[in-house]
Amino acid sequence: MTRAARDVLADCRLALEMLQDEAAPGRWRVHWAGAVALLRAVGHVLLNVDQSADPAVARAGKAAHRRWKSNDPAHLIYRDFIEDERNNILKEYRSKVHPLDTVDVAVRLTLQNPETGEIRYIDQVMPLDENLFREAAPEMTGQFLTLM
Known about the structure:
By secondary structure, this protein is of the alpha+beta class. It has four helices and two strands, in the order ααααββ.
């Protein structure tokens, strides 16, 4: 059973809701720090709390942790975001993310000619129209969030 880790994961979902609803940059930053710490706590709780109750959970948790720490590109979110951002915040109180930063997103448009079926791609860089976690407050119009 992974009850404790599931409780932390539920709190991660609540933290996301709080981030989405928060308009004040200072309060958002506090919610962000808490959310990142919770994300990292899921793995720690799985390994240090839930595994003690069930040997099968211990094996699965250790195997998952090895995969997350590996060089597998599928687990970049753990290494380059969850672990790295948690370390930045909790060890140095700095972050790669700020609610007033801007971000441009690379977009590939796929166009298909309805008569010939010919496909054409158009690559563009476009700014986001709103913060990734919440709608922009009126005084923050034109400001966006950088994830990495």
